[in-house]
Specification:
It is a single chain. The chain is built from 21 helices and 2 strands. It has 454 residues and is mainly α. The chain has a two-stranded antiparallel sheet. Helix 3 runs antiparallel to helix 6, helix 15 packs parallel to helix 17 and helix 18 crosses helix 19. The longest helix has 40 residues. The two termini are 22 Å apart.
Amino acid sequence: MSFTSTPNIWKPNTITPKDARFATVLAFLAWTFAVYDFVLFGTMLPVMAKDFGWAPATSTAINTWVSVGTFIVAILLGLVADRIGRKRGMMLTIGGTALASLATALTFNPLYLIGVRSIAGLGYSEQAINATYLNEIYDVTDDKFIKRNRGFIYSIVQGGWPIGVLLSAALAAIFLPSIGWRGSFLVATFPAILLLVMRMRMKESPQFQVQQRISALVKQGEMEQAKELAATFKVTVEHARAPLADIFAPGKRRNTIFLSLAFFLNWFGILTFSILGTTLLTQGKHVTFSNALIILILSNIVAFGGYVFHGWLGDRFSRRNVIAVAWILGGVSFAVMTLLAQGAVMVVLFMSIGLFFQIGAYSALLYFMADSFETKSRATGTTFVNSLGQIGAVVGGIIITSMLTAGTDITVAAFVVGALGTVASGLFIMGCRKDVPNVTRAEDVAIEAVLSSK
């Protein structure tokens, strides 16, 4: 890890406009291919089950245990990233995507598949690590445009989700007939490896470097120097506390709990209308399968517009409030779609409006999450909250399955779990601390002052 220094004062990295833009492009591409791998697994699981002769119950069990494994790996990544740094954490996420894709192509039984797809939890955490790193470098970059519009710029990165979904659907249709599901996963490996190599050129975030430098001085017994450096950079020298314990420390606990509950409940809606969207449309709204695919493609295009809109809006108003209003509006739209909308036009309209607000708000959400935690536990906090989405999907799936087994119509189940879950997530996010958008943190002002000094 490199540091800039002078004879008089230690200095962390300077983030030039070129550094910020390079990191932004890589983050977008890495998230796109992480989503591609993540969605490809769901697309190919029925094909794999047919090849191996797995019963539907086996496929369901695999998917459930993969979600649990993803949750565990995602939490572990956050703990690691707050110790080894953002740059290495981001190399782990894209490296995990490459490894998961390669290993999935070699699948030979269900237990093996559960193990290797759990590794994909690294790729799923790409968005959380991206948010952590970009939140920090955007705060101290010399690029004035990015600094003024940091939420908007980040929203383009987060827009890798719908693009990754569409890329997965398109390439699966192209490659599956010719090279099969194994070849499709192998194809996903090569871009991820290239991005891993390119990420070696990125700079570590100055905020992490400051924390690392202070920790090193404390370990060496240089307490006075550590305190002087901490005072210079407007941070505190505290007794060591595990990052996971730190996000639940007094004064932080309430924010973490409400943020976690909101994220958990919102995945009820993602499961219902994104992951199970085709099933809902064909079985519940009697849309043909081909039309259902067209609707999902259009909805993902609309969702990209939602990302950009909410990112832009979050630069001007409290991100907490933007997220809350968006999720409540999204939930109401889903409620209308499930209970009232009839005909393809109305179903498309309200499905698209719902995804525009629900999925689109994630650009503001991830940046808000990174703003909600201190540097020493920011990666742990964002990945912990992000990982709860997988648990939300599992719990939501259990509730939907139970309702369907009891004879409930799928549209009613979608309303109860998906629509109401999305509205509830919007209400819970209001329990978090209200933020003021794009206010540079005191420690980041101090970093800028030190870097600008002669």
